[in-house]
Amino acid sequence: MRATALKEGGHGQRGLARGILYVCLTLFSIVSLFPFYWMFVIGTNTSDRINDTPPAMLPGLQLVGNFQKVLGNIDFISAFVNSVIVSSISTLGVLFLSSLAGYAFAKLRFPGKKWLFGLVLVTMMVPTQLGLIPSYIIMSKLGWLNTIQALIVPGFVNAFGIFWMRQYISDAVPDEVFEAAKMDGCSHFRIYWNIVVPAILPAFATLGIINFMAIWNDFIWPAAVLTDNSLQTLQIALRSLNDVRFTDYGMMLSGTFWATVPLIIVFLFFNKWFISGLTQGSVK
């Protein structure tokens, strides 16, 4: 009976700990999501509601009206299309090149492999802003300033993507499968395409979401290389809504809300693979 009581007590303690964990996670989720909710609330109200005491906490009726103001002040649709093109093509390039490099670092043997991979890790420690001027000079020498390729091509190389793919491929593709494919006469690209790619789909989803969001939200690089309004991305276009004399927060946050919707859709669509990619290796 004592053993039964101890067992029941252990179950009770685990249940209590699990309940506390769920409460904490719920509170953290509410705190994390509140800025997005408040952005939506202000985006559906007039700008003067931002100074109300207490502040507005319920959505208003001005979402369409505020968005019509956005369309009247900037070419939102064109900027939206530019952001989709730049983010999508850059992300596809990162996935392809990073997975190829990760496959090479994970499974191939070649001179200087450890040194090269160490160099990739070192570049992850360099702030992005330090590469802004050299990258700008390269784009200028190529004649790519104020072109769409200046936004796309520099994003193809991603040190984190190479590191992520190398670590994932090392665990996801057993060496025995790799050696068996080599004995069957498969080329390296066929091994990559037929064996590695199907095995790392969760890694693709995780890296794709992270990279897509980073490119979508990037402001500094597009602002440096673009002057043509027709090539502006959403972040540059939304910045022009902030007038020096008066800022219509309802209009600005309405535009920001609609600019955030694609990120939410992408995350929800790849959510299952994203979580699978992050938890790979946490359980055996």
UniProtKB/TrEMBL annotation:
The record's annotation in InterPro entries points to:
MetI-like (IPR000515), MetI-like_sf (IPR035906)
Q: Which domain of life is it from?
A: Bacteria
Transmembrane segments annotated in the record for this chain = 20-40, 76-103, 115-138, 144-164, 191-216, 249-270
Under the heading CDD domains, the entry gives: TM_PBP2
| Cell compartments where the protein resides | Cell membrane
Where the record annotates domain ABC transmembrane type-1, the positions are 80-270
Entry keywords, A to Z:
Cell membrane, Membrane, Transmembrane, Transmembrane helix, Transport
What Pfam families does the record point to?
A: BPD_transp_1
Which topology term describes how it sits in the membrane?
Answer: Multi-pass membrane protein
Write out the similarity annotation.
Belongs to the binding-protein-dependent transport system permease family.
Concerning PANTHER family, the annotation shows:
ABC TRANSPORTER PERMEASE PROTEIN MG189-RELATED, ABC TRANSPORTER PERMEASE PROTEIN MG189-RELATED-RELATED
Q: What is this protein called?
A: Carbohydrate ABC transporter permease
